[in-house]
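#struct-help
A.M.: can someone run this one for me? Single chain, 326 residues.
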Amino acid sequence: MINRQFSAALTLLVLLFACAPLVAQRSSEPAQTGEPVGKRIIFTDGGALDVDDAWKQGDTVWYRLQGTSQTVHREVRKIENRYKEPAAAATNVAPVTKPVETTTPPPAPTATWIYLVDGARLRVDEVREVSDGAWYNRGKVTIFLERERISRIEREAEASAAAAQEWKQHGWSSGDTSIDQMIKTTATRFAVDPYLVFLVIEQESRFHTRAVSPKGARGLMQLMPGTARRFGVSRPFDPAENIRGGTQYLKQLLSMFNGRVDLALASYNAGEGRVLDYGNRVPPFKETRDYVKRISSRYRSHPIQDVEPAPAEKTPRRREQKRKPS
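D.P.: on it. Structure tokens below:
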């Protein structure tokens, strides 16, 4: 009887000593604490995705990565925080010489482009797609774009730091490199911001070189016959000639109204005579006001490009009316 009790006690002691290291090891595992650096989405299939932020809206899980928000199309098991890894504690151990490791360069920043159905494309900082269109950010301005105007949205890596600088100066494209170059060259010649010329062409013709309006305006910048003759444009469907005449006209309007972009745009749409008739104010025509509002809102959100000043042209103020909005 005593031997049995002694054997049982001895067995219990052996088990206690065997389990002690496991308990100590488990209790020594540190809990995840520290500075949060993002979220980790754990999927039911065992996969995981590290993102900047993640949240649930209704039955849909959204996440943001590198400035772009998207929805998750896989079944999510849970979302947990990611923490910054703690720095290794300093010790008195002599440093160990390690072989030189090759460092992998950080991934290039991503460029987000919205391609429009008319062939133009627009560089944006961030885009969030919804059912009826997309919200995009440029600087501090958020703008909504209708779904029927969007052809596709693409994200591509920047080629180099020079390309990133190019984006800061020229965050736009018509989709045709030759037209882009004509805009930049002609606008610089007449000391007009190329982006303003780009917006006018986009609004006027959607970059269709042979566009003709019901009122007779022609070409990329929709020059009326009188305006074309006024600036020596004999071939309004020639892109270079049309851009030259339209940019020259826009420069004259900016000079006439002391750099007031809104009045220059109103004059380009309705004719400078109408603006003068209303005391140097945007005429109260819905078409003209919408025209000025659409271009001005986008133009203000874009940094103005520096251009070399061209000599002012001494031309008489002609009260020609480009259109007659009702």
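A.M.: thanks! The domain at 175-326 is CATH 1.10.530.10 (Lysozyme).
D.P.: also worth noting: The first strand starts at residue 36 and ends at 43.
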